[in-house]
Amino acid sequence: MRNFCTFTVGNVKFGVDVLKVLAILQSAEIVRVPLANRTVAGLIQYRGQIITVIDLRQKFDFPERKTEEFFHAIVRTKRGIISLLVDKVEEIEEITQNTRVEMSKSVHGIDSFFISHTYRFEDYSLIILDVDKVVEVKSN
């Protein structure tokens, strides 16, 4: 049995191991960084630390966000703490059944390099992100 914090970006449902998630923030002022990689939305302050914000819409070449509503999923990686910019935070999914599926080179247009594994349910798929690879510069 494994637990994942789940969230959506566009119409794709993602998950991150709950042990890597430190917090979910609804609002934090993002300071833009000139000449940063396009996937870097900027920097925020979290508990006295300055952390990098990765916009998953930009990372995975999704259409631009139509609203100003988004959330920060604060996660721990091998390179330190980062914020993943997501559209909506869902719930904690407890995976008890063996619904893991093999991945192709891309899932929903997302390079499998960034995906740890995928679970398929009746009405949706849950893509588990490898947050250590999401901080890599590689883009789709």
Walk me through what this model shows.
This protein has a 6-stranded mixed sheet with strand order 8-1-2-13-12-9. The model has no long low-confidence stretch (mean pLDDT 87). Helices cover 6% and strands 51% of the residues. The chain has helices spanning 56-59, 131-134, and strands at 2-9, 12-17, 21-25, 40-46, 49-55, 71-77, 80-86, 88-95, 100-101, 106-107, 110-111, 115-120, 125-129. It has a single domain (2-134), classed as OB fold (Dihydrolipoamide Acetyltransferase, E2P) (Beta Barrel).
Share of helix, binned: under 10%
Structural class: mainly beta
Q: Which CATH C-level class is it?
A: Mainly Beta
Question: How would you characterize the largest beta sheet?
Answer: 6 strands, mixed
Spatial strand sequence of the major β-sheet: 8-1-2-13-12-9
For this structure, the CATH topology is OB fold (Dihydrolipoamide Acetyltransferase, E2P)
Contiguous uncertain segments of 5+ residues: none
Q: Could you give the distance between the termini?
A: 31 Å
Q: What overall form do the CA principal axes indicate?
A: globular
**CATH superfamily label:** CheA-289, Domain 4
* SS field, number of helical segments: 2
Strand segment count: 13
Total domains: 1
Proportion of β residues? Answer: over 45%
Provide the succession of SSEs.
EEEEEHEEEEEEEEH
Average pLDDT rating: 87
Radius of gyration from CA coordinates: 14 Å
CATH architecture assignment: Beta Barrel
Topology, element by element:
Layout: E1 2-9, E2 12-17, E3 21-25, E4 40-46, E5 49-55, H1 56-59, E6 71-77, E7 80-86, E8 88-95, E9 100-101, E10 106-107, E11 110-111, E12 115-120, E13 125-129, H2 131-134
